Amino acid sequence: MKGHVLVIDDEKNYLLLLEALLNEEGIEVTGLSDPEMALDFLEESEVDVVVTDMKMPRLSGQDILEKVKKDFPHIPVIIMTAFGSIDGAVEAMRCGAFDYLTKPFSNEELILVVKRALNFAHMEQENVFLKESLVQKYAKKHVIGKSKKIQTVLHLLEKVAPSKSTVLILGESGTGKELIARALHYSSPRSKGPFVAINCMALNPALLESELFGHEKGSFTGAVATKKGKFELASGGTLFLDEIGELSPEIQVKLLRVLQERKIERVGGTKSIPVDIRLVCATNKNLKQEVEKGNFREDLYYRLNVVEIELPPLRERKEDIPLLVAYFVNKICEQNSLPLKHFTPEALEYLSLYDWPGNVRQLENVVERCVVLSSSEQIGVEDLPSEVKDEETQLKSAVDLLPLRLNLAETLEKIEEALIKRALVKSNFVQVKAAEMLGISKSLLQYKIKKYNISF
User: Fold this and answer.
1) What is the chain's Cα-based Rg?
2) Sign of CA dihedral 116, 117, 122, 126
3) pLDDT tens readout for residues 306-341
4) Which of 7, 24, 380, 403 is the most buried (most CB within 10 A)?
5) Could you tell me the CA-to-CA distances from 365 to 133, 139, 306, 380 in Å, in that order?
6) What is the pLDDT of residues 335-385, one digit of tens each?
7) What CATH homologous superfamily does 4-133 map to?
8) CA separation (Å) from 306 to 249, 300, 303?
9) Structurally, what CATH architecture does the domain formed by 146-312 represent?
């Protein structure tokens, strides 16, 4: 078993013995008889486990333990003590020691305890790595986009993340509401706590109540054991309630009480349990309209809507599509061990003109389909699904982006000018080819170029 153990003992014979025993097990050992020097060594070196004697001059094992727990909380500490000092070892355990060994101890006992401590240390290191990976994965820098609307979202996210305020995220399905919720959590002081998510539409009201608040044993048929709910599991972190607009009136009342009192009661229980959570909710419904219809409590709406973040649909941030496509291509190629692929400019243009009713989620699915099915590293228009390259759909998407109030004649002229400029660029300014692309004669094209004063 690999690992680095620091042994601290003013008796040099014990240092030599422990070093020899652990080295035979493939464990790297540093033995130091000076506890102050050992603390300096910890500052400068990678150590997995500390084994320290209890009674030493200048600094005791208890002093070492307190220092390690304060500055290196992920490193387990094993206390060695003489038979007559067991009470001190027990006290050290209460203060956070991993285990203790009573001198004289057997070789087998030493090796067993040290290996257990190394296993624990490795698991702690993996947990730290996983949490850091999650922070990196869901940090706001991974919200892709340069459009003004998405930058507004990111600016608001940055301002609200450090607070404890409840956040309501609005947006159509597929716009990335859970991604923003996770970015809020992992950009906040609660990032080391749990992020617990639940979709309020996925369960019927009775099951949802049990999932949210937990239940006591025997509270209903099938409740064979006491179960903690999502509020308790999220304590110290963030609870994300997706599709909040689907809550039943009964659960709305209970949720309101939790927000007011910061306490919950399990189903079938009478004890109030305090919970420390940051609540983030999301919905694709217009909650104001739901309040007016009587489907959603007005007092709960105002409790939830402390800070509102509205995510734009993809059709309103089309300049972000090339960035999103590049991000998804890299991600999908890496996940599937494929050589890096790319979309041709023509294919990207089709993707940028499409309406994307399913928003970013639909775009990711289309990109994945194209990347996986394409036999070439270059993905062209012919590789796109039919709904994306359908001309009627493309035209409808473009028209939908136009304002409702406009001067028809002026707008048609602007569209005509833009189409002529695009055709000229695509044909490398060869007028015959540009005219063919537009389905008009070269003379008519020349007339239009003069009319719109197009220079090239």
Assistant:
1) 32
2) positive
3) 999 999 999 899 899 999 999 999 999 999 999 999
4) 7
5) 24, 22, 34, 16
6) 999 999 999 998 998 898 888 989 999 999 999 999 999 989 999 999 999
7) Response regulator (3.40.50.2300)
8) 21, 11, 6
9) 3-Layer(aba) Sandwich (3.40)
